[in-house]
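Figure 2 data, in text form.
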Amino acid sequence: MKNWQRFIGVVLVSLSLVLGRGYNSVAQANPTQLVRQAQQQYDLGQSVRALTLLERAATIYQSRSALLPQIQILTLTSLVQQQQRNWQLASQNLERSQTLIDTLPPSKSKTQVQAQIWNVRGHYALATGKSAQALDNWQEAERLYREINDIRGIAGTNLDAAEALNRLGFHRRACDRALSSLNLEQNRCQDLDTEALALIIRQAGEARSPWLIDSFSTMANSLLSMGKLLLARDLAIANQHLLAESHLVKSSTQAKIDLSWGNIELELALQAKAQSTAEDFQFHQERAHQYYQRLKNLPPGFNYDSFRLAAQLNELSLNIASQQWLQANQLAARIQLSPLSDDLYASLQFANSLRLLQSHPAQQYDVREIANLYLNVAQQAELAGDSRAESYAWGNLGELATETRLALKSSPQQMFERALWLAQSISAPELSYRWQWRLGRIYRQQGARVKAIASYQAALANLDSLRSDLVALEKEVRYEFKANIEPVYRELADLLLTGSPSQSDLVAAQNAIEALQLAELDNYFQDACLTFEPKSIDRVDAHGAIIHTIILPDRLEIVVATVDRARQQQILHHYSQSVSQEHLEATIIQLRQYLTEPDRTRDIQRLSAQIYHWLIQPLEVLEQESPQTLVFVLDGLLQTIPMAVLYDGKQYLLEKYAIALTPGLRLLNLQKNSASPSFLAGGISRSLQVGQLNFPPLTNVPDEIAAVEPLDNALLNQQFTPENLSTRLNRTSTSVVHLATHGQFRANPRETFLLMWQKLLTIDEFSRILQTRRPGLEPIELLVLSACDTATGDRRSALGLAGIAVRSGALSTLATLWQIDDRSTAQLMRFFYQYLPHHTKAEALRQAQLELWRQTNRDWEVPAFWSAYVIIGDWQ
């Protein structure tokens, strides 16, 4: 039991309190020493010897009529029996200890032992898969420890409760519990940044709590699961320093730290793989292998078995992720010799890895062998009452049977239904959504459309409930978003839009498309800090039309929402275009490349005419309703091109309509700034080098900023710092923030930034500046980011641009899709601010873009100069 050492420390301290000092330890063997020896034998895997020593200690206490120590020995005996998986005896000893302690009169010592019993009940519940019950037990233990002000006991139960919360997927709460064990002023992990964590590490180090390394380890595991990998790494570094300073040889503690290091590097590698950054993936992969190798080389002994097995299983996952099939095959063969049957979740992880290996043509794993692994886990989990493990086993077995057409006694549908029932019985939405998704596929194949839609919608409801803690999903699911989460949304939209969809079908499809946009942003940032509420176009803009798109393998689906002005209500229209995803995306990528090249106007018109034919030409409703503004919710690579440039053979779309973008109406912030317009402008005009990056000068930035506010009041060059920006934003109710500086949006959020003076400001840092203004100030009406650059044809880079727009807290954002000539930008911005007082933001941008065409002294009618600008968010 991995918490034995921390728990036994509490017991050994309390034994002396319970017994007092009146016994002759010379006449008999010291029972406290026997308990220590039992601990040593337990650590060596000698559980039978440990039980013998505990029995001897119990006999001595019995001869002394010392009932409380006897009860404590019963609880320790239960812990050893739990490690032996002897659940019946472990439970009987717990019940016996409870019966005995109920016979004693109230006292401080009794309260302490009662707390210890509840503590061991928590371990029993956690070991048998009842994490919620374990949490309740530890909360009761904590209450009793607080009654007697047992600081060590309070801290220990907080750390135990954190483990249960991590098992349940509540990683933020788990981290908060571990943090509270340090008894510091800061107690919310969600508020942690690098500076705040450094302060905690320093203050906790000065306090020197005996459980400090355990606290940091638990926090690191929680932060790791929350996706805050750099903070987890800081804690691992702190733990390494603490261990070195202690001058104690604690190989198990070093193993725990090494495992944390390996898991951090594994997560960084998987994250890099998901973001398609091959160099980072290789770097972190190699570092993870180094830590796992150290753990694999640990000497034999129970004390190290769990660390060694965890390292092997995680390294196997890494080998598969990096397609190192030979190494993966060799490692899998070694793991098969391990006693996996003792650990249900290790068995599940191993079976899942074998499934991935089996699907590779070079591997020869017997499908029935893998199926038997799942069946064995299901049977053992049922005996242990571990519904979570049993649900995993049946659901994964159903997936295996579906993938390989393996014939078993139960059908895949029956397996998924069993897995779903188990998941729902323990309120596990992170499991329920997967089995509902799989059942939705089966129902659709059976032609049961209504049941299929209901099953998909239930899956989406569960995913929505997980938004605040998407990290509750397995990392294999989290980092394989396109394979394990995105299809749920797309398949539901596909199902709803097949045939002749009703208005209710169209509403549901519209909701699924917007939910997908939200999920993609959550996945990009690896958190979910965006709030929303459903909205319809009739409540937002009676003269607008919103166009939802979704790209499916064989077609482009379009749902258009317009307003019936007579009845003042939203009407949905559906269009379907037969074009393959491959052909559509190839056209988009080529157009996006040509858009940045001024001499490619004819090629641009040819390609944009093709996309116009697919996306705009079928929409007869636009001719009928004559909206003034088209608002696009764009899917996939469509986000990388400006809709303004779509060409009908005679005119660009810009010449007919004002145009805006949004990830969905539900993300619109319709709050208005009621104060008189006030402006804040800043930017960089000089060339700069920050780290390894060189940025050329933007010589026309002073002219651009002068269109917003006087230069002597602007934050230009050295004045353009995060501190000055924050100070200015907190001083007045600024309604327009105009930043003329280099900006880069990339697939990796850590490579997405705005250039400040001698600093690259990340999205998180920038959002924090804008969102932590002092209370009472009006919202920012418009954020302008000129000179930005989004990677050509990169879908995830476009998410960075959309993300900074919605996470900034500004109602609207005007930005560029690529960096363009700053002379034309300065001119366009001057025109934009001239039109803005008398038009909507989208219309003001449209007029400014058209105004560029009229500059006869410059050839700015070329799309490369005018089409890069987009309005994201509230267009009015």
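Caption note: The first strand starts at residue 544 and ends at 552.
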